[in-house]
Amino acid sequence: MSDRYLPLVTPPQSVTEPALWFAFRAAEILVVLGGDQPALPYCRDIGEYGLAPQRNQYLGLYDSKHCYAVEIHESQPLPQGWTALGLRDLFGLVESTLAALSGRAYQLLEWERNFQYCSRCATPTQPRADERSRACPACGLTSYPPVSPAIMILVTNGKKLLLARKAAFPKGRYSALAGFVEPGETLEDTVIRETREEVGVEVKNIRYFGSQPWPFPHSLMVAFTADYAGGDITPDGVEIEEARWFELDELPKLPGSISISRRLIDTVAGRLARGEPAFSGS
Fold this sequence. Notes:
- This protein is of the alpha+beta class.
- The chain contains four helices and 16 strands.
- The strands form three sheets. Strands 1, 2, 3, 4, 5, 6 and 7 form a seven-stranded mixed β-sheet that branches.
- Strand 9 (about 135) and strand 10 (about 140-145) form a beta hairpin.
- The mean pLDDT is about 95.
């Protein structure tokens, strides 16, 4: 994430100083109102506010502060001055490392909730102290927090960008193509297959751009650029409702700034507008 966060598994034996609490009620994160923007609870024990966690995960240190992820039952009333926000809403209010850590917290709580029992023999699993995993005492099967890799691909043709929209998108919004990696595929294989399946075109010169953990529910988005290599744009009509080439000065409504798709599109469009290659090589 950054130098500000140190991931750790084993919590401190005693807590004498306030800690940051990533407290979730269902899929919403609890924040304290006041000041210019909401803040995460910062206290020695979240029980001080009458909240009893159903489960918890120690996350490590953020700016030298201990961090905990906890799940609060939906029926528990919130303390005065607190509210619950959707995780996507929080992403736009806090700095990037804290946003990523919030996503990590949510994914770890989801994993612990969903892997209470061994998927092989149904025995209750137990957390391991030396790593982030749950082990079955009967058959030895160990489960780890799941991560689903997915690619994102921005195809260029000269100074044009290939953007697409799904039916679920807000009206008028377009983005880069994306899809999950299948077993046995390289990331480059997935780029070629997804582009062919979703819009019917071929690509070449595939280059890595960057990555972003995306906790909806537990994806790792790996973004690429590629050059157009042929074929007519033919949306599949299932995942993709519409797709076409856009000139740099006529770009449509794009995803929000919290997503790597927006950073990918903005970066490539900016480079092409300056007469530079879409890929910087660095």
